[in-house]
Protein 1
Amino acid sequence: MLLKTNKLMKAFGGLKAINKVDFELPANEIRGIIGPNGSGKSTFFNLVSGVYEPDPGSYIEFDGNDITNEPPHKVGELGLARTFQLLRLYQDMSVINNVMSGYHTLVPYSFIDAVTGRKKIWDQEKTIKEEMMELLSFVGLADYAELNASELSGGQRRLLVLARAIAGKPKLLMLDEPAAGLSPVNVDNLMKILMRLKEKYGLTLIIIEHILKVVMDTCSKVTVLDHGEKIAEGTPSQIKDDNAVIEAYLGKKMDDEEMRKALAV
Ligand SMILES: Nc1ncnc2c1ncn2[C@@H]1O[C@H](COP(=O)(O)OP(=O)(O)OP(=O)(O)O)[C@@H](O)[C@H]1O
Ligand SMILES: [Mg+2]
């Protein structure tokens, strides 16, 4: 397994945000995580990526390493990258330099050294820049490379966040609602990019997504959280037919027709 959690737990005061979650993800899979608002999806990412410290008794393993109590930079060095639900970009930095920053979080010299040229690494930088430009073309942002991130549209910023997360060639990429706020055309575009990414870079992905179409069309398996607990797991079609999921996720019982409509968003 590339990622494994055992009895993963995190309480905030009396609230069990993640409650004894066992999770296993083999390499080369695209996994979806769904669940109602506040069900613990982002907390799960924050625990796995080292942003939050899990409660005692929890265990997290990534690529054969015990990462239960490792900080984010350590987890990143091992090859785990993630995006945040709220976009985090260097607004005043150019598009290409934002992508380069994603590369440099995973290589052993600082980005600031690189941009200020304090180290004699320009040849190396040039190759990296070419590679990063290729990545920008891949997500359709090559023409915007020299603009500031703040000059991009909302959808373009989402693509930039994605490009930056891939820049360090992670073994596992975790995306927190990558399609939020995108128009239907851009959602389709994003889904194509995700599928191509998997083919080209052999990435393993975990996608948290409210737009069920994205999850249903892109993921081979889906994990469902409700009140911090894993309530179901299976292929998209298994999940669609799971009564617990229908009740928890959609908040009420639905007949088949309503369900089909809701899941075909
Ligand atoms: N740092 C924190 N401090 C206190 N409570 C928190 C913290 N982070 C998350 N929580 C709580 O944990 C629960 C799960 O939150 P989380 O953000 O993981 O939900 P989510 O499934 O990602 O929801 P959404 O779909 O709205 O993004 C919520 O009740 C939330 O208020
Ligand atoms: Mg969330």
Note: The chain is about 40% helix and 20% strand.
Protein 2
Amino acid sequence: MSIFEQRESEIRAYCRVYPAVFDTASNARQTDENGKEYIDFFAGAGVLNFGHNNERMKQAVIEYLQRNGVTHSLDMHTRAKRHFMERFSRIILEPRQMSHKMQFMGPTGTNAVEAALKLARRATGRHDIVAFHHGFHGMTLGSLACTANQYFRGAAGIPLTHVSHTAFGAEGATADTAMQALKLLEESYRDGSSGVTAPAAFLVETVQAEGGVNIADKTWLRALASLAKSVGALLIVDDIQAGMGRTGSFFSFDDYGIEPDIICLAKGLGGLGTPIAMNLVKPDYDRHWSPGEHTGTFRGQCLSFVAGSEALSYFEDSYLMAEVKEKEAIMQSVLGSLGAYETIEIRGKGMLYGVDVGNGERAKTIVSRCFDAGLLVSACGSGGRVIKLIPPLTTPEADLKAGLAILVAVTQDVLQEAA
Ligand SMILES: Cc1ncc(COP(=O)(O)O)c(C=O)c1O
């Protein structure tokens, strides 16, 4: 029995899906200890937008370590942090005329969401949050209360309160129903006898990744933003998985015409795959914090600042984002060949695609056979019925095509066996 089976907690999960011991990795490929190579369409669940061991970022981190750059600093000032903040401000915020402050917290996505919820409640004096069906926001109790999946919620051990879930307005057939749900909410907030009061915030993903790759309908998201404004609630966009260029521009909501009050970022923000989380907060709300009220020993990770500063270079020009659009076209056209199967639905934006095979068991078989064939993909969505493709944005075209070919062939085999 390996040390993993002997000693690692029963909680282990991805290692059961990918039964290998990985050793090295470069861009869109990972190699296990036996030398078998895998094309990585999982990419650390959306962390490795710029590939494994991105050369520019790796060199920057090596140089930083070699000159004894500070690695840990809580929220003290460092040159690495200044450089990152200046670049983030200049490359991302200023061109969008965003006056948002940058708040650093413990370095995982759930920390960012917790801080956003706290601040929204503090700023409005209200308790309740509205989140959405199929939303995923993390595992700590505040975020978990907003996460919709019952399997995860069940592990809380206490009631998850002060959050209600309403229909997510995904592009397609259900957008109208979600719009009706919003209208009902609006009416109930205005009706002093409805028993419902306005929330502190609406917490939404523009593209629900874990929820099954559901893309917010533009009209619906704009209606949500305007509802939030009209009832004095904050609009929080959780861009932890769909941000950082994933959908073809830095923020997933860049083409939605909304102005979120708080934006949660983590995962890809550190560029190389080292942890960091950051909220962008409108100054009017940020002023509700007092110094040190929401801390975290590992807030503001210098190695992530160093690599993350390099990652921002990809947004100084339009080269990578143009490539994402070209690669999206490849994904669409290759996956389109599965469109002939009635049971399959393809959804996606940028380089975040979902193949909904309609059934969790089927998806599990496809994921496992892809693994055997040298492709890493994961399942998400209701009952795990959607195969999620989230390859590094820097994936070479040849690897993208090779990975897609494996996925299509495996899916066709599995569907034919089921027929
Ligand atoms: C949209 C979204 N929010 C929050 C989280 C939680 O991030 P973390 O696992 O780093 O706490 C995730 C993780 O997958 C996510 O996809």
Note: The pocket of pyridoxal-5'-phosphate is lined by residues 45, 108-110, 113, 136-138, 205, 209-210, 238, 240-241, 266 (CB under 6 Å).
